[in-house]
Write a structure and sequence with these properties.
This protein is α/β, with parallel strands linked by helices. The chain folds into two domains: 64 residues; 392 residues, TIM Barrel. Helices cover 40% and strands 13% of the residues. It contains 13 helices and twelve strands. Strand 6, helix 8 and strand 7 form a beta-alpha-beta unit. Helix 3 crosses helix 7 and helix 4 packs antiparallel against helix 5. The longest helix is centred in the N-terminal third of the chain and has 31 residues. The protein starts with a helix and ends with a helix. Bound molecules: 2-acetamido-2-deoxy-beta-D-glucopyranose (5 copies). The site of one 2-acetamido-2-deoxy-beta-D-glucopyranose has 6 residues, from loops.
Length: 482
């Protein structure tokens, strides 16, 4: 009897305390929290930040893995201007690419990174290299003769933090250059330039280095794994079983150096096929299946899948939108649904098309840019810039697929950028809400998969929820049941 009275008193007291705590702690967290509210984590098919809010990457590729190993475009614009252009589209992320060779050279050079000036001269020659270098420092006056390539990456990461743009750091190639032919020696572990130890060393190095970047929220293992045509011995290794072995090594290399970042896994067939992971089928020729426990301490909340969508290249005729969507579903997007054996967040880290007047009405472009937001998947278009310092032997080579013009100053296809691209950005960035009443937010006919209402519930009230659970836990500890 006395105990019952005591419990009643305690219950009301706890209710009041909990209310006060959750009010004050929400404001406290509101006040203390600052972008990017990291580290980001995954929960089922969602990426969330530390406040519990859902994060959808919406962004653009920014290559830095061609021969100079310096992020492109800086001979034409400042980093601040370029990040502002990305921001002006309403995007929130960049996929910044680098080559393992940059880290190899760091070690070959007595653990010192090569200067930007030397990199330009080595690759473009004395006169052209110096001319480009001088333009870069004219646009970016904080740089000078001592500035190293990694310091250029640092400056981009710093500007991204300032403008609240997430940096996804992508290991694009081993030997720097244009990617990704099956002949380039970069295709698969063990290929001419794709040394496994150099690769894991490079991943660890960048993961460690990136700890100083507020904006760094994720890293990839490797861009576009593919069969090697020049190295026939590797044919026996190009399979899911070897993929799984190497992917664990790479993921461990990143996670042990930097446990905060999300780790993106890319599949086979130039990152166009993730079926064995999504469906949990045998990792052939072996019989094991994908198991999060093999990624110790982070398999449950740090892994994200990435997919590329390129039905418009290599002479592939573009099919109808429904055929394209079915293919994307079967090769990766299924991971966003309950029908997947393994649910993960998914980011389409590359897709793109030539930018010209007709892009604004291109049916492939509108198919993808309608599908991605409808699935609440992340996406990053190839590519930001309109030219390369050097690509495949041509200096100042034009990039027809660049959102920006040759000199990175204006949109190449304003009709596209301000039209279907902007619409897709806006709808991907809109708060996720289940307002169609059918509980099937991704529109794929699988209603139970979708949980945006709980995601937004968590984002609103997680501090209160945690405290409620904590206080009830203490209550439970002392008094048994309630
Ligand atoms: C691995 O890195 C070393 C430098 O530490 C470099 O000399 C070597 O060429 C690299 N291996 C490959 C296959 O690129
Ligand atoms: C994806 O790979 C699997 C083997 O893992 C294969 O059976 C399937 O046909 C591939 N899908 C496509 C669309 O290439
Ligand atoms: C735009 O690009 C597409 C795809 O490469 C091409 O077929 C078309 O001719 C181009 N249009 C113009 C006006 O240049
Ligand atoms: C997207 O949102 C921005 C900011 O609200 C707005 O300026 C722009 O017009 C929108 N784009 C489209 C295509 O509605
Ligand atoms: C359209 C779609 O994705 N449908 C899938 C819903 O989930 C069931 C299994 O639960 C699949 O068989 C369907 O293909």
């Amino acid at each position: 009897m006395a105990r019952f009275g005591h419990m009643q008193w305690l219950t009301s007291w706890l209710a009041v305390v909990n209310l006060l705590f959750s009010l004050s702690s929400s404001t406290e967290i509101e006040r203390r929290a600052s972008w990017p509210n990291g580290p980001l984590v995954t929960s089922g098919r969602w990426i969330t930040d530390a406040t519990g809010a859902t994060v959808t990457y919406v962004g653009v590729n920014w290559p830095g893995s061609l021969e100079t190993m310096i992020p492109e475009g800086l001979q034409y614009q400042s980093i601040e201007t370029l990040v502002s252009k990305i921001k002006s589209l309403g995007m929130n992320a960049i996929r910044l690419t680098y080559a393992t060779e940059m880290i190899d050279q760091y070690y070959d050079n007595g653990e010192k990174d090569v200067t930007m000036q030397k990199a330009f001269v080595d690759v473009l020659g004395q006169d052209d290299g110096m001319a480009v270098y001088n333009k870069v420092i004219a646009n970016n006056p904080s740089f000078g003769a001592e500035t190293t390539r990694l310091q250029v990456y640092d400056a981009i990461a710093t500007e991204c933090a300032k403008q609240e743009i997430y940096v996804h750091l992508d290991n694009h190639v081993s030997k720097a250059g244009w990617c990704c032919s099956p002949l380039d020696g970069n295709s698969w572990w063990g290929d001419t330039f794709f040394d496994v130890k150099n690769w894991t060393r490079g991943l660890s190095f960048m993961a460690e280095h990136g700890k100083t970047w507020t904006s760094l929220t994720s890293m990839s293992l490797r861009n576009e794994l593919r069969i090697s045509v020049t190295n026939s011995q590797l044919a026996n290794s190009y399979n899911w079983e070897d993929w799984y072995k190497y992917v664990q090594q790479g993921a461990d290399a990143i996670h042990s150096a930097n446990s905060d970042v999300l780790i993106f896994l890319s599949g086979l067939d130039s990152d166009k096929n993730l079926t064995a992971v999504v469906q949990g089928s045998a990792l052939e020729p072996g019989t094991d299946t994908f198991n999060r426990d093999n990624f110790q301490g982070y398999g449950d909340d740090k892994l994200v899948l990435e997919l590329h969508a390129y039905d418009n290249i290599f002479g592939t005729p573009v099919s109808s939108c429904s055929v394209i969507k079915d293919k994307l579903f079967n090769t990766g997007f299924q991971t966003l649904t309950n029908s997947a054996a393994n649910q993960f967040p998914l980011v389409v880290t590359e897709f793109g098309f030539p930018q010209n007047e007709s892009t604004a009405t291109d049916s492939y472009a509108s198919c993808l840019l309608d599908y991605f937001p409808s699935q609440h998947t992340g996406w990053m278009i190839w590519t930001l810039g309109g030219s390369y310092y050097i690509r495949e032997g041509t200096q100042d080579r034009d990039e027809e697929w660049g959102l920006l013009s040759h000199d990175w100053s204006s949109w190449r296809s304003p009709g596209f950028t301000n039209g279907i691209l902007s619409t897709a950005v806006n709808s991907s960035m809109a708060p996720i809400s289940d307002d169609d009443g059918d509980d099937d937010d991704d529109g794929n006919g699988n209603e139970s998969t979708d949980e945006p209402s709980s995601a937004s519930f968590l984002s609103q009230s997680r501090p209160g929820l945690i405290l409620t659970m904590g206080v009830l836990g203490i209550y439970d500890f002392f008094y048994g049941a309630y």
